[in-house]
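Long-time lurker. I teach an intro course on protein structure, and each term I like to show students one example going from raw sequence to a predicted 3D structure in token notation. This year I'd like something fresh instead of my usual example. Would anyone be willing to generate the tokens for the chain below so I can use it in lecture? Attribution to the forum is fine with me.
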Amino acid sequence: MIRTSTLIFIGIYLLSGCAAKPKESVENEIILRTDVRKASYAQGVAFMKNLHQDDVAFDQESFLLGLNDVRNNNNIRLSPSDLQKATDWVFAQRIFHNNKVAAINLAAGKAFLETNRSRPGVKTLASGLQYKIVKDGKGSRKPTLSDNAYVRYRISRIDGKELTSTQNDVKLPAIHVGSLVKGWQEALLLMSEGAKWQLYVPSDLAYGEEGAPDGRLGPNEALIYDVELVGVQQKTSKNALIKAGQKPATALPRPTSSWRSN
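-- Reply from a regular --
Happy to contribute to a lecture. Here you go:
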């Protein structure tokens, strides 16, 4: 996803100081024991992941030359205007790559959802959200946008690659329904406690054109959610509980059922 790099002067000066030495010699000399070395290495990893993710061309020799020139107070080899043009070029490459990936993901998501809508048990809502009921709920309570929900879930891409899961968690955090992506919100409002649904979420009801903030999810990706609504914590003020002679909850409820993927 698009981001402006703030890591140009990263702490990989350990490499830059040895730029003239053979690659193998540099790798053998650097031992990541101190906090400074670990932090410098981590910043180097983050910088390169950033470039690889955005498919930006990178020349290590020129990068180290620029880093050393600043570090050693040498004359900068490009004019301020050329430096800005070079920075703008990187940003333009990121935009181009992001737009390309966004178009590919959007087309893939639409094709998947178009095929999926005709599969047995799959229902489509007016919003475009698709779902399949794996197990009906036994309870009567359904969450509202102001409630917290205890949910066991697995989120994956349309190719089945898992992104995150709580299926092995013993205790579940309380998730505020109103803070979830639109597709997940819409489904939870229809689910009763104990229900298990599989959701097929279009990109505009998930993370949209921006993708996930942590970079694990690209722009315009449709998603699959396996969701079990374990419990609902309805919105009740602390004062209302005390007035009714009840103590506000201080611990998470234990899951009432175990997850089984279908």
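Some talking points for your students: The domain at 125-243 is CATH 3.10.50.40 (Chitinase A; domain 3). The chain is about 35% helix and 15% strand.
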